[in-house]
Amino acid sequence: MERRTDAADGQAYTYDEIAAFYKSKYKPSEVKAYWEEEMKPKGKGKGKGKISKELEAKPKAKAKAKAKGKGKGKERGPANPKRFINEEAMIVQDCIDGLIWSTPNLARLDAYPDVKVVYRTDWKKDKVAVISGGGAGHEPMHGGFVGSGMLTAAVSGETFASPSIDAVLAGIIQVTGPKGCLLVIKNYTGDRLNFSLAAQRARSIYGLEVETVITKDDVATSAERGIAGTLFVHKVAGAMSEEGKSLSEVKREAEKVIESTASLGVSLSVVRRLKAESIGIKKMEVGLGIHGEPGARTEDLSSAKHVVEVLMEGIEAGRREKKQPEAADGYICLVNNLGSVPPQEMCIIVSALMKSKWGSSVKLLIGPAGMCTSLDMNGVSISLLPITPQLKSWITAPTACAAWPAAVMPEFPEAAKPSIKDCFEGVVASSDDAIKAMIERGCKALVDKKIFLDELDSKVGDADCGSTMSKASTGVLQDLGRLPLADPKATCACLSDVLAKTMGGSSGVLLSIMFMGMASHFAGSQNSWQDAGGKAFMAGLQAMMDAGGASEGSRTMLDALVPAAKALADGKSLSEAAAAAASGAEATKTMVPRAGRSENVPESAWRGNADPGAQAGQIFFAALAE
Questions:
Q1: H/E stretch holding 562
Q2: What angle do CA 310, 315, 320 make, to 5 degrees?
Q3: Distance in angstroms (rounded) separating the CA atoms of residues 481 and 515
Q4: Which residues are identified as catalytic?
Q5: 275 and 220, same structural domain?
Q6: What is the pTM of this model?
Q7: Which residue segment(s) compose the domain that 54 sits in?
Q8: How buried is 247 (Cβ within 10 angstroms: 0-12 exposed, 13-18 middle, 19+ buried)?
Q9: How many other C-beta atoms are found inside a 10 Å radius of the C-beta of residue 91?
């Protein structure tokens, strides 16, 4: 990710930072001109290029950029400042206390605020203790992985800040017995210094046997930071401890895991609870650090498939550069949510991974889950560890840590065919020109009014009434040639099925119930549109009301459909039924909602606007009466 320096103030910025800062003040062409002709590549000196006419037209741009670099520009706070906290100074302590309340066999040292150590209460000091830690903000790492089969204790600093030497030392003393202790340290300067010095003091002052290992799985930059791949070390060391292995054995295998692990992440945002957004709306940053450190580069936002390609190709390149051993038998793969990616999108990432050319090499899958997060960073990382029978045994060994997802052997069983009978099965298409013409007119009218109904629904609902009605109408028109139009009962049964499949939402279900109710009425009386159509329509609406709980006067589609049905049941014409539907829809403009989309919106939103569902019913009947 290129940074360019302003020679006048010596401050370096990325193009995205400059563009985000000026987007509400200057045209993109003017910002680009400033970047190209005034901002010099970092380390290239301060030679001046020729200033464009566009830039000269905005002489204040450079001065504002200098002010920003000196901290005198517009203050930009966190992009997402809303937080569920009490006091800023108590965030980490409150988080740890909440973890202890909700986790069996967990306690903390009574030394707040300087010492924040979580430890196992069921620990007997008869095996090798495994301790890790670092800055807070990566939850559930580290405290969430304290438990049988993983960590014995975790030491926390403040958010994104290393714990103190005394805090680490207190954790070592609390859980270390005759078998010794292994400290798992992530490769950050503060963690390395504080954990290493605490280990030295534990040895020299307290006579404890303490060893250290340093994780460095991030292949994004030469910094070799410790990120989500650290969890492989936690799991293997914890499982070995449970087996009673010696400290030297645990350390040796932990170092093998470290030397074989590679991780890489992609993020669509910074840590928005702490920082102003600097990643462009259509950009993603590859290798952004878990504390918000700069990544390797910024790329255009793309599909989940491409994100997987970027991650896997980057990990492959990193493994080659580090000369890591070949994965002859495939990988253990950990898919990590960096904080705020919805579960839906995490599953899409896994799907893209398993369908990619790398999918067959994934022999054990851990996640997707938030394991090593960066508060609310909108990103994902993948960690790979070559699998061996022994590593598989340790990774799949039992643990009491709820935050550790089960490692599974990914498989995709053959999809079973649905056994639901198709409504057209055994049905012979037949014609009734009058009915066909009415269905065509009604459905086409709803398709034509899609935008109108969506706009009306945007005032009182979720702006999709027109889209829903249009989709349903299109589905009916597509199957019109297959319908047994001369058989009212069979036609209504088929329409019920078509709407249930194509329409979606509560409206689709309710209209499907209505047509099935009509089919049932036709089965028990004359199977004739002319003789029983009106009463069948009323019976269908009654079935809808019984299922949905609404009725005429609730400000729903029923306020147009029920008056129309009553008119038809009384032997009145389609024109009279259409007029009744129009009157009912108009009445909803002042009708207090008792059900449906308007029930939970303020009166100022619905008063004066017809209910979209009732309006759709009026449109349909107006088209029938043409």
A1: helix 558-569
A2: 130
A3: 18
A4: 291
A5: no
A6: 0.72
A7: 3-69
A8: buried
A9: 17
